[in-house]
Amino acid sequence: MRGAPPERTGTAPQERFGLSRARLRLSQTPMDRTTLESRVRESIACKERLALLCLDDVERLGRMAVECLRAGGKLMLCGNGGSSCDAAHAAGELVGWFEDKQRDGIAAIALGHEVPALTAIGNDSGFDQVFARPLRALGRRGDLLIGISTSASSRNVIAAMEAARTIGVRRAALVGARPGPVADLAEVAVRVPSTSTPRVQEGHLLVVHLLCEWIESHFHA
């Protein structure tokens, strides 16, 4: 009976698992302190523009969400990548709590976070339907969908917005400064005033926190 092969020694973990160091090439222009400060100032400037230009829409979104919840509806949120994280973040803050740990949970769902459904729908119907199909299954007239897309043109978010319109679910959007169908399909669109994806995402996180605080203030224990 043959024994186990001798353990390889002197080999880096990356090489043992087939990962070559050569694949990770070092940049000739790494980030420096000046660039770090510039990015922080860009983020601050974006939030200052948001405070100047977007608060009316943030307030409208807050009122729409509270109206939905008071009528017995629920919030559904969706997005891709970092926007998917924002959707889950918002739902988690509402079902759990934002700051008030004495209040009841608030009905909110981040679409696309059920892995079996996500992979089945993506495999059988295409990735464009990964939000629209669960929305049709779970959504009811009077619910509110919040589509999050930094580009305002994510096809699966567009499909979800269209499905929501068809079944009577209200529609809101968090987008950036670029025009796009996600914003066009929304009754209320908060347009973070930037075309930089990182700055838009940072603005969306702030809007998520503002929305959670707005909602929570209306449903205090």
How would you sum up this structure, described in words?
Helix content is about 50%, strand content about 10%. By secondary structure, it is an alpha/beta fold. It has a single domain (about 55-220), classed as Glucose-6-phosphate isomerase like protein, domain 1 (Rossmann fold, 3-Layer(aba) Sandwich). The protein has a five-stranded parallel β-sheet, with helices on both faces. β3 (about 145-150), α7 (about 155-165) and β4 (about 170-175) form a beta-alpha-beta unit. α2 (about 35-55) crosses α9 (about 195-220). The chain is globular, with a radius of gyration of 22 Å. The termini are far apart.
Task: Describe the SSE topology.
Elements: H1 13-16, H2 33-53, H3 55-70, E1 75-78, H4 82-95, E2 108-110, H5 115-124, H6 132-138, E3 144-148, H7 155-167, E4 170-175, H8 181-184, E5 188-191, H9 197-218
Parallel strand pairs: 1-2, 1-3, 3-4, 4-5
CATH architecture: 3-Layer(aba) Sandwich
Amino- and carboxy-terminal Cα gap: 70 Å
Low-confidence stretches: none
Total DSSP helices? 9
Write out the CATH superfamily name.
Glucose-6-phosphate isomerase like protein, domain 1
Q: What multimeric state do the chains show?
A: single chain
Structural class: alpha/beta
**Largest beta sheet, briefly?**
5 strands, parallel
Q: Would you report the number of β strands?
A: 5
- Beta-sheet strand percentage? 5-15%
Adjacency order of strands in the biggest sheet: 2-1-3-4-5
Q: Return the string of H and E elements.
A: HHHEHEHHEHEHEH
Mean pLDDT: 93
